[in-house]
């Protein structure tokens, strides 16, 4: 008995569902197969040229839904597929939320997820901020290899990741890095400091004057 992946049957196109959301839903379907999940997981942190085992699952979907030939965009698809496939068992029961009632820019980006991790004690503040500031200075070629370990920490700590938002941010990273990095940092500080009291910092500043 073979464990094969389901046919490429992504949710039907909808004017209210983004292509990135449909792709995430498709990858979740594919990952129901142990064999397919293992194949996608082998691409963690690797460029598309070294992801030969992923092509059979992703090329048909891209051909029928997006067919992106731009290198950064294609790598973003492959990267997110491998990250979803590598989720720890505790995170596999989560299903993608395609609710059209939430504005795209209100959805959690990676910065917001890191902020949640700090607020919940999953990551130390210095570690999360250092990771964000480092990525803000890097090209996608440097960002991609570091994502698997970072994402694994978040998921293991029960922090959810909006895969569709991450996909689009990675796809545009080299062309709009400053804009995306700024959005990540703003989301991080809004989330990580939501329950903190700024009074001690203000008092310290007063004493220094």
Name the features.
209 residues, mainly alpha, globular
* Biggest β-sheet description: none
Shape annotation:
globular
Tell me the series of helices and strands, N- to C-terminal: HHHHHHHHH
Q: What is the number of helices? A: 9
Question: What is the percent of helical residues?
Answer: 55-70%
**What is the residue-averaged pLDDT?**
85
- The value of Rg in angstroms is 18 Å
Low-confidence stretches: 1-14, 196-209
Distance between the first and last residues' Cα: 74 Å
Question: What's the total number of strands?
Answer: 0
The structural class is mainly alpha
What percent strand?
Answer: under 5%
What does this structure look like?
With 209 residues, the chain is an all-alpha fold. The protein is built from 9 helices and no strands. The model is unreliable at 1-14 and 196-209 (pLDDT under 50).
Quick recap of the structure?
By secondary structure, this protein is mainly α. The protein has helices spanning 19-30, 34-41, 55-65, 71-85, 110-119, 125-136, 140-156, 163-192, 199-208.
How are the SSEs placed, and which strands pair?
Blueprint lengths: L18 H12 L3 H8 L13 H11 L5 H15 L24 H10 L5 H12 L3 H17 L6 H30 L6 H10 L1
Helix pairs in contact: 1-4, 1-8, 2-4, 4-8, 5-6, 5-8, 6-8
């Amino acid at each position: 008995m073979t464990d094969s992946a389901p046919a490429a049957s992504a949710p039907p196109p909808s004017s209210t569902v983004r292509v990135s959301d449909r792709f995430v839903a498709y990858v979740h379907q594919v990952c129901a197969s142990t064999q397919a999940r293992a194949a996608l997981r082998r691409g963690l942190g690797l460029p598309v040229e070294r992801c030969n085992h992923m092509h059979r699952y992703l090329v048909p979907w891209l051909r029928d839904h997006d067919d992106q030939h731009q290198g950064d965009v294609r790598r973003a698809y492959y990267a997110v597929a491998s990250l979803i496939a590598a989720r720890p068992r505790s995170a596999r029961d989560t299903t993608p939320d395609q609710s059209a009632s939430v504005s795209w820019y209100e959805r959690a980006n990676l910065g917001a997820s890191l902020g949640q991790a700090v607020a919940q004690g999953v990551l130390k503040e210095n570690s999360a901020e250092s990771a964000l500031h480092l990525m803000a200075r890097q090209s996608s070629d440097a960002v991609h290899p570091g994502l698997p370990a970072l994402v694994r920490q978040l998921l293991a700590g029960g922090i959810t990741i909006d895969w569709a938002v991450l996909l689009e941010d990675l796809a545009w990273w080299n062309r709009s890095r400053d804009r995306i990095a700024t959005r990540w940092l703003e989301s991080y500080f809004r989330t990580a400091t939501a329950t903190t009291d700024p009074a001690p910092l203000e008092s310290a500043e007063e004493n220094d004057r």
